[in-house]
């Protein structure tokens, strides 16, 4: 189960995330491919109740048969979450979206599927750049403000059909 933030197509899919060179459809393609390579069927939902990626992931795992979900923020920040954990206690967190590659997103999908199958995940190699946060923080904050405008308190999530 992948969860997208409330802005969905209106904001996220119109242009690439500000801190990544990839369009959300390319990210979804890789995440779904990683899940399917592990023999699991992926579902994609759009959450409207929050623009916080951790709470979006919680909403996703509430609807997931396996209790595992991946929350993806428009700027590319991604979490893997498990039902029953507090919102900010993720199984895995990938906060430096400017440094995530499409292969990283595929590995995130694989790990989520492994968690769903109760198997051990593999370490996902990521880069670290001390300047990534200051370089993108202002743009990221603006994008988050725009995305938060699409939050609709109490609105149920919407399952999406994804044609990649």
UniProtKB/TrEMBL annotation:
InterPro entries: B12-dep_deHydtase_bsu (IPR010254), Dehydtase/Dehydtase_re (IPR003208), Ppandiol/glycerol_DHydtase_msu (IPR025541). The keyword Magnesium does not apply. Its EC number is 4.2.1.28. GO terms for molecular function: propanediol dehydratase activity. Keywords: Lyase. It holds the Pfam family Dehydratase_MU. SUPFAM superfamilies: B12-dependent dehydatase associated subunit (SSF52968). It comes from the Bacteria. Transmembrane segments: none annotated. It is an enzyme of class 4 (lyase). NCBIfam families: PRK15042.1 (NF011616). This is Propanediol dehydratase medium subunit. It comes from Klebsiella pneumoniae. The lineage of its organism: Bacteria, Pseudomonadati, Pseudomonadota, Gammaproteobacteria, Enterobacterales.
